[in-house]
Amino acid sequence: SFYYGNFPAGFLWGVGSSAYQTEGAWDKDGKGPSIWDAFTHKKGKVFRNETGDSACDGYYKVKDDIQLLKELKVNHYLFSISWPRIMPTGIKTEQLNEKGIQFYNDTINSLLENNITPIVSLYHWDLPQVLQEKYGGWQNISMINYFNDYANLCFEKFGDRVKHWITFSNPWAVAEKGYETGEHAPGLKLGGCGAYRAAHHIIKTHAKVWHSYNNTWRSEQQGMVGISLTTGWGEPVDPHNQTDRDAAERYIQFHLGWFANPIYRGDYPEVMKNYVGRKSAQQGLGTSRLPTFSVQEKTYIKGTSDFLGIGHFSTRYVLQKSPPLPQAASYHTDPDLAELVDPNWPAPGPKWLYSVPWGFRRLLNFIKTQYGNPLIYVTENGVSDKMQCTQLCDDWRIQYLKGYINEILKALKDGVNVKGYTAWSLLDQFEWNKGFSESFGFYHVDFKNKNKPRYPKASADYYRSIISANGFPNSREVENWQQKAMDTCSTTHQLLAADSLITHMEKVTEIVLPTVFTLCILISIILLIVYLRNHT
After folding, report:
1. SS3 state of residue 334
2. β strands within 184-298, DSSP E
3. What is the 3-state secondary structure (H, E, C) of 356-372?
4. Mean pLDDT, range 62-79, rounded to an integer
5. Membrane-spanning residues where (predicted)?
6. Which domains, and CATH codes, for the chain?
7. Is 380 among the residues known to form the active site?
8. 216, 237, 238, 236: which is closest to 225 by C-alpha?
């Protein structure tokens, strides 16, 4: 049932984005190439071969986008720094890009001038391409020191003003999609080993950066360093069946626990070690495909998070399923489970994103119990649409936000220590291997228009109402918000339609006028030649 009430005073409301998805300017002002630049420039890697070369042109529209943040009345903005924009090769001793550093200084200063707190992710997937080519990226242990140098540069340049740092955003996707399935950059299919090795190095890197901040910067800057982990919730198909309950537990441990357990408890989850170890032995391997931490490393890693960032989008029903032997080594077959969905769950966008709000409360309570009730910031939560035409009146996104945010309110009543919520995302942006075919934004971006104007959707108006009320005061008021939001979006739709027509006319004019002008000149020349011939 829906719970009416307010969030605690001081609860933080925000919205997020990432560098590669929004900035564009992929090779401008001294920026080096990232693995996503290289990946998207290969044909067949991204839907319709689209790229983030210009994305939302966020590099040139910082002030415009901060105006949107002010319109939304958010307290904070979560964005990422592009490693190759400030360190083109990824190696500090080789080259620093002052223009890139200045760009992020200007962004941070503009946010603070508008009373918006910056929450900064050091890594949202755009590894410098040079490090991938030279060392194999996250497969190589040398990334630990290179990333630590980069993180310390960020603390040095921006840490006097940035007090919330995220080391990695959704490292699960970096490891699984980058090094297991190859769906994401760098596009490697290192079945059964690649994802585990990448994750191992990322966890060690996270710990090293946390200790660097703790030892060198914390006393002076008084900030916090955490990690952002994205996970679904796994619900047993039959909650009375122990086998299904165990399978659901494995689902969570192979997603969230893979990274959270070492950081909060000192090692990989026992169930991961057991299952991957057993499968490795069955495959004739002498050691487990899941790497091990030494005793010193376990101690070093444990406790290296001042807060836990949580990204959450959807839920699955889970049951036990043992694949037939023999099987190829794969992260996906290691946990022996199958995922199901309820056909009645709303799925407004892509096939993976079903709206199941109650799973969020269960996930938050699991974290409270499993990891000692850590300080939590929700760092990503939202829903995309996959409409062929522009949808500004996004009623389904309003329903999604209403349901999921309400489950956070319930979790707070359960005693979960959630301090802030970040909706995903500010703008429609480049969605990785899906290109521009999926749209998560509160603001529609007209990518066909060279100026890439932004238009608010109904959900932007609705989210602003939640922020202003700091929750859900009563049913009548909440219903009024939705009606008002839908009325406003109808007007914006008319504006978008008019602007699109003007853009179309401009394009036609750009093509037609030069063509007509050229034809006139050609006809004039022909007539002149005929005239001269007749008079000679």
Report:
1. coil
2. 224-230, 233-236
3. CCHHHHHHHHHHHHHCC
4. 98
5. 511-532
6. 5-473 (3.20.20.80)
7. yes
8. 216
Element (H, E) at 154: helix 143-158
DSSP lists the bridge partners of residue 472 as 5
Q: How far apart are CA 479 and CA 469, in angstroms?
A: 13
pLDDT of residue 513: 65
Q: Does the pLDDT of residue 13 top 70, yes or no?
A: yes
290-310 pLDDT, tens digit per residue, is 999 999 999 999 999 999 999
Q: CA-CA-CA-CA torsion for 169, 172, 175, 177, nearest 10 degrees?
A: -100
Tokens of 97: 């890009």
Output the DSSP codes for 90-103: S-TTT---HHHHHH
**Max CA pair span of the chain:** 104
Which amino acid would we find at residue 498? A
Better pLDDT: 388 or 86: 86
DSSP 382-404: ---B--SS--S--HHHHHHHHHH
Phi and psi of 233, rounded to 5°?
-105, 140
Angle, helices 458-469 vs 475-534, to 10°: value is 150
Report the length, in residues, of the chain: 536
Helices within 424-534 (DSSP H only):
458-469, 475-534
Q: In the prediction, which pLDDT does 324 show?
A: 78
Which run of H or E residues covers position 78?
A: strand 76-80
For residues 312 and 382, what is the distance between their CA atoms, to the nearest angstrom? 8
Residue 388: what pLDDT? 61
Would you state the structure tokens that stand for residue 84, as one six-digit string?
């190759």
Where is average pLDDT lowest: 196-205, 219-228, 437-446, 492-501?
A: 492-501
Catalytic entry in 380, 407, 431, 438: 380
Q: What is the pTM of this model?
A: 0.93
- Give the span between the Cα atoms of 300 and 265, in whole angstroms: 11
Q: Which two tokens stand for residue 303?
A: 């406790």
Structure tokens given for 107? 């962004």
